[in-house]
Design goal:
By secondary structure, the chain is of the alpha/beta class. Helix content is 38%, strand content 24%. The chain folds into 2 domains: 176 residues, Molybdenum Cofactor Biosythetic Enzyme, Chain A (3-Layer(aba) Sandwich), CATH 3.40.980.10; 64 residues, 2-Layer Sandwich (TATA-Binding Protein), CATH 3.30.310.50. The chain contains 9 helices and 11 strands.
């Protein structure tokens, strides 16, 4: 069985690093990517600094084990939205004005302004900035907002995507990405055991041995403070080997009976 393709997430925004905004996008994306067979290998958060965004993109793009890169945030109309410029630098692509993007924004603004009875709409400098895109970008329609998603063909079937940081816009664009660019993945099999009032340390030796016996199965323990449960979670591409790990835990820790 070939190696499962992996993803990375780069989150852009001073508001994340300074604690003003909770990053829900990474959590949501990671869950979706895991289930479609593109699990996240690493996440990086950077501020609104061109050099840091460029470095994060180049670092992930240089890794052959990363098949899909998701850059989230920084696509808006204000000066602190710098992802387009950073993408151009990181991928060595000049920024070009996309008339189709500008026209789509103008159409949307016209509809919004008519609804608000403000008359017709003209693009301002901030709007035009949002239509200055790296030359190699493929557009992905944003059905929930103004900034389009972008896709870049890196090499050997690897892709980089740029998405808005607004959660409902990111999720809308991702649905299209999943259909068009994530069909080649195979989701892991996941199995869990739930124990009540079981000391986590009691499982150390068994888990360590199973990691060596089944290196292709990911095994972790997760204490739940509120319910006083301990969850052991095994995941991997081969259902028989994942089930074998779960059976081994049941047999080797027989003094505790799992709830389920």
């Amino acid at each position: 069985m070939g190696r499962m393709p992996q993803s990375s997430i780069i989150v852009v925004g001073n508001e994340i690093l300074r604690g003003f905004t909770v990053d829900t996008n990474s959590n949501w994306l990671a869950g979706r990517l895991f289930h479609v067979g593109y699990p996240v290998r690493l996440m990086t958060t950077v501020g609104d600094i061109d050099a840091d965004i460029v470095a994060a993109i180049r670092d992930d793009a240089a890794r052959p084990d990363i098949a899909r890169i998701f850059v989230c945030g920084g696509l808006g109309p204000t000066p602190d939205d710098r992802t387009y410029v950073a993408l151009g630098r990181a991928l060595n692509q000049p920024l070009v004005y996309r008339r189709d993007v500008g026209a789509a924004m103008q159409d949307l603004m016209f509809v919004l302004n008519m609804a608000a009875r403000r008359g017709t709409a003209e693009l301002n400098a901030g709007n035009r900035k949002m239509a200055m895109l790296p030359a190699g970008a493929q557009l992905i329609r944003n059905g929930a907002g103004m900034a389009p998603g972008l896709a870049f063909d890196l090499d050997q079937g690897r892709y980089l995507f740029a998405l808005p940081g607004v959660p409902h816009e990111l999720r809308s664009i991702y649905e299209d990405i999943e259909i068009r660019f994530l069909s080649g993945g195979h989701g892991d099999v996941v199995r869990e055991l739930h124990y009540r009032l079981a000391p986590e340390s009691m499982f150390h030796d068994v888990m360590q041995a199973l990691e060596q016996e089944y290196p292709d199965v990911s095994l972790g323990s997760y204490p739940q403070t509120e319910t006083r449960e301990l969850i052991l979670r095994a995941s991997g591409p081969d259902v028989d080997r994942v089930d074998a790990v779960i059976t081994a835990i049941r047999n080797r820790i027989s003094q505790f009976t799992p709830l389920r």
